[in-house]
Amino acid sequence: MSSTAVRSLPSPPPAAQLRLLRALFREPQPALDQIARYGPVVGLGAGPLRLAVVGGPAAIRELVSMPPDRFRWNHRFNLLAVVVGEGSMIVSDGDEHRRRRSSVQAAFSRRRLARWIPMILTRTDAAIDRAVDGTSSRIDLYELGRELVLEIVVHALFGRRMADDHAAELGDLFRRAQYYLELPAYRQLPHPFPVGRRGRVRADRAQFDRIVDTEIANRRGAPIEDPFDVLAVLVEDGTLTDAEIRDQVDTLIGAGFDTTAASIAWMMVSTAGDDTLWMRLRAEADAVLGSDVGTAGDEQLRALDLAGRAVRETLRLHPPGALSPREAAEDLTIDGHPIRRGTMLAWSAYLAGRDRDAWPDPLRFDPDRFVDVDDTQRALMDAAWIPFGGGRRNCIGFALAQMELTLILARMAQRLDVELAPGGEPRPVGMVVNRPQGGVPARISSR
Question: What backbone torsions phi and psi does residue 319 show, to the nearest 5 degrees?
């Protein structure tokens, strides 16, 4: 319970609330900019349709630091389960969530992540080689990143053979699911019929389950020693049922590549459009990575300081999701405001990353803002940088995502000249995945 005196929750006038709610589910980022004018915690709606948007960094930190049992993720407005499954850790509560997350967490140890560094760089090189035809190529950098990250994630989960043979198929299955989740809520109403977009999503999920079931059977029949095979770790552990394994694998692929691919797109918009920054990134990569990436490891990753800061700045301005929802399972107080049981709480890393107290000139992309910062300002920035959540329900794959983004940016800067298409920064779209509208068209060539 907050020690701050309890005060009523600020809310826009009723007519404005209806307008903002509609806008929030259609174009969340501009709507959030308007909502933030009313305060760090803002109430919308009424009765069973109550929503509290939490955008102030201190309020978000207070929220995510509370015990998870005070909230529900498997709530009545949960739209993810049709894609990730009822047994996914991201839509589970209480002991079931802790058991499922614990089984998966072991597969993302720091030692295992370090083994993936040469693979990430090698697959980045292969993606670059495919994209460049010898002179120059017109390409959508969002699609390039999407294909690349999917290969990396599938390789990490299933091993090289699956990544080489089935990554494209899995990408098609997940693309339709992503489009479905971006539909307005009224177009996602549950029904049992094998028709419409929801029916197609269920059919895609059934096909995905068949692929995973085959791979589970293969690992039980002939265990393999593959340092990249997370599925083998889950099968050998024996804690999860096959249905739970399928749901976690679906979650890890879906959450692990769509969001990271969108981050690559935003990262390229912000860095490749600045010639000076791009040359600085290239010089750092030349010095750290050289031409042989087969033995790269933690030492090289840590030495990519500028690339790491550019990733951090990208995620500040363009976090993977505009909003992260949970339901209050009991009466709460956040930032001194009473929150009634049953209220949907939607905290926004997008708003925290643009907070003027934490980030001087917040809309300017500046990786050097993290250098030579005094302790007071650093504390404000650390509290406001929350693209992967916080507390015990933070993103399980955050370390992998940051590692992928840093290595991919460094290698692309090292190997590619990039000319972005004219038109300025694209508009952000999407609530589940915050991506640039229209992709990132560009002309690329080898340096």
Answer: -65, 160
pLDDT digits (tens, 9 = 90+) for 39-83: 999 999 988 889 999 999 999 999 999 999 999 999 888 878 888
Residue with tokens 């691919």: 261
The dihedrals phi and psi of 349, each to the nearest 5 degrees, come to -65, -25
* Region 233-246 average pLDDT: 92
Pairing state of beta strands 71-72 and 416-420? unpaired
CA distances from 327 to 93, 186, 330, 332 (A): 11, 19, 9, 11
- Give me the mean pLDDT over the 385-411 stretch: 94
Host domain of residue 355? 14-446
Q: Give the total residue count for the chain.
A: 447
In a domain, residue 369? The reply is yes
Residue 6 inside a domain? The answer is: no
Tell me the three state secondary structure of residue 390. coil
At 89, which amino acid appears?
A: M
Which pLDDT tens digit goes with each residue over 90-147?
999 999 999 999 999 877 888 888 889 999 999 999 999 999 976 678 999 999 999 9
Q: Is this structure's pTM higher than 0.90?
A: yes
Handedness of CA 97, 185, 262, 173 (dihedral sign): positive
Helix (H) or strand (E) holding 227: none
Q: Give the CATH number of the domain where residue 399 resides.
A: 1.10.630.10
416-420: strand order across its sheet: 136-140, 441-446, 416-420
Nearest to 176 by CA among 64, 97, 263, 82: 82
* pLDDT confidence of residue 148: 96
Residue at 3 is within a domain: no
Query: Alpha helix (H) ranges present in 239-274?
Result: 242-271
Number of domains in the chain: 1
Between residues 235 and 255, the one the model is more confident about: 235
CA 435/CA 28 separation, integer angstroms: 12
CA distance 155 to 163: 5
Neighbours of 81 (CB within 10 A): 17
CA–CA–CA angle 183, 185, 186 (5° rounding): 105
φ/ψ (deg, to 5) at 444: -125, 150
Within 10 angstroms of residue 92's Cβ, the number of other Cβ atoms is 20
CA distances from 179 to 28, 71, 132, 341 (A): 16, 28, 29, 31
Q: Is residue 187 part of a domain?
A: yes
pLDDT in tens, 418-438: 999 998 889 998 878 899 999
Q: How far, in Å, CA of 300 to CA of 208, rounded?
A: 36
> How many Å apart are CA 1 and CA 253, to the nearest integer?
37
